[in-house]
Design brief:
278 residues; mainly alpha; two-stranded antiparallel ribbon; 4 strands; binds iron/sulfur cluster
């Protein structure tokens, strides 16, 4: 199964290297300098081989071009480069490097191979700098919609014979910054899984989701429980992750009790059933 870090022989991501970076750092802002550095790191590695050397500042000596042409950049110490041997212990953040996995990468891992290929086709011609930039790589946003929504959208695209770009033209909510994929994927999952008419634009889905969101906000069961009423962090409760994210990020439920979530879930499912019925 492919990983978002290296989804094809031509694509690689190095956005989370090195692990300690300034906030909002983007490699694309320093492309010319980094390209020189990556070439030098590759040459040094090929000439002298691996050796123990800590990271200096925000620059890691093991981050270099993986090919002669300088198309792919990545970790020269990664097991995939060294016959399965992980050499990242040679820098002082090795364990942190091995643990690193962003939310988009975790969602990508849970997609089927066919669905992975579909979404990756959106950025198939990117080089490593474009692929590793959160500004230019739309997958860092799109993948946050999570497997249930992304698999459903892929199925729709296959049924309609749409390319991934055509799907994005028809379902504009996917990239619309007005929607927060983590907070709102629950609403869209309900809409997409329902029998509500889909049409050739996302007007119906979006309108229904807005109406559902408004109705939930106006319902008394959606009032955030107080700290005294509930001693548990909402994300720790045994419910679907997308529902808990909606409660936390849209409704502001930082803490919740099992009973309150169960009650609100029943209210929402009833509302969705009435609204999304054809
Ligand atoms: S930012 Fe995500 S996709 Fe990119 S290398 Fe890190 S974990 Fe992989
Ligand atoms: S050792 Fe490899 S994974 Fe860790 S920061 Fe350096 S290039 Fe990135």
């Amino acid at each position: 199964m492919a990983s978002l870090c290296s989804p094809s022989p031509l694509l690689s991501c190095f956005a989370c290297c090195p692990p300690i970076r300034p906030r909002n750092y983007d490699h694309l802002d320093h492309e010319a300098i980094l390209k020189r550095e990556f070439r030098a790191n590759r040459l040094d590695y090929l000439r002298n081989g691996p050796m123990f050397r800590p990271i200096v500042g925000f620059s890691c000596w093991a981050l270099g071009f993986l090919d002669e042409e300088g198309r792919r950049a990545g970790c020269l110490l990664h097991p995939s480069r060294n016959g399965g041997q992980d050499l990242r212990f040679l820098i002082d953040y090795g364990e942190k490097c091995a643990r690193e996995s962003c939310r988009a990468a975790k969602a990508f891992e849970r997609l089927s191979a066919e669905v992975q290929d579909f979404w990756i086709s959106l950025v198939g011609d990117f080089d490593s700098f474009l692929f590793s930039s959160r500004r230019t790589n739309p997958l860092f946003h799109i993948l946050l919609w999570g497997p249930p929504v992304l698999e459903r959208l892929h199925r729709e695209a296959m049924d309609e014979n749409w390319s991934v770009r055509e799907l994005l033209r028809r379902r504009t909510f996917i990239t619309d910054p007005a929607w927060n994929p983590i907070a709102h994927r629950f609403l869209f999952r309900l809409a997409l899984e329902s029998d509500a008419p889909k049409g050739h634009t996302c007007w119906v889905d979006e309108t229904l989701c807005r109406i559902l969101q408004d109705r939930i906000h106006n319902h008394s069961a959606a009032r955030p429980p107080s700290r005294e009423e509930s001693a548990v962090f909402t994300h720790l409760l045994p419910f679907e992750g997308d529902l808990l994210d909606f409660l936390r990020l849209d409704l502001g439920w930082e803490f919740a009790g099992y009973g309150a979530v169960r009650q609100l879930e029943a209210v929402i499912m009833e509302m969705a059933g009435l609204l999304f019925r054809t």
